[in-house]
Amino acid sequence: MYDINTVTVSGRINSVNFGETRKDVPACSFTIRTMAPKSSQPVLVRINLYGEYAKRCIGNLKRGVYVLVKGELMARRKSDGDIVFIDVRASDVIWCDSALCTLLNCDSDGMPHKEQE
């Protein structure tokens, strides 16, 4: 059976780290703060980019920027092997500057306002 492994998530960047993998491939790892449906608590999601795509994000990804991310889930184990973390390996990242957030009528968290029901 074929599994579909595609994730789309959006939110404000909480932290960003640029570096290289052990094989000297450019890498960028950042966390975003997003809200889970029917929850008042934010969720932090770790996003990873590699190669030329990671290089292009230098200077554009920083704390507070609102992003839309598409990617696939990837699992990693903590060094003791007991805890599994789920990350997203990004294939697309769209970042919103303040002008785009104004156009989208975003609130202070960078989320577009929902229509009143």
Please provide a written account of the structure.
- It is a single chain.
- This protein has 117 residues and is mainly beta.
- It contains two helices and five strands; from the N terminus they run βββαββα.
- It has helices at 52-57, 98-103, and strands spanning 7-20, 26-35, 42-50, 66-77, 84-96.
- The chain has a five-stranded mixed barrel with strand order 1-2-3-5-4.
- β1 and β2 (26-35) form a beta hairpin.
- The protein is globular and about 40 Å long.
- The N and C termini lie far apart (40 Å).
- The model is unreliable at 108-117 (pLDDT under 50).
How do the helices and strands line up, and which of them pair or pack?
Blueprint: E1 7-20, E2 26-35, E3 42-50, H1 52-57, E4 66-77, E5 84-96, H2 98-103
H/E topology pattern: EEEHEEH
Low-pLDDT runs of 5+ residues are 108-117
CATH topology: OB fold (Dihydrolipoamide Acetyltransferase, E2P)
Please identify, by name, the CATH architecture: Beta Barrel
Features:
OB fold (Dihydrolipoamide Acetyltransferase, E2P), mainly beta, 5 strands, disordered C terminus, 10% helix, 2 helices
Brief account:
With about 120 residues, the chain is mainly beta. The protein contains 2 helices and 5 strands; from the N terminus they run βββαββα.
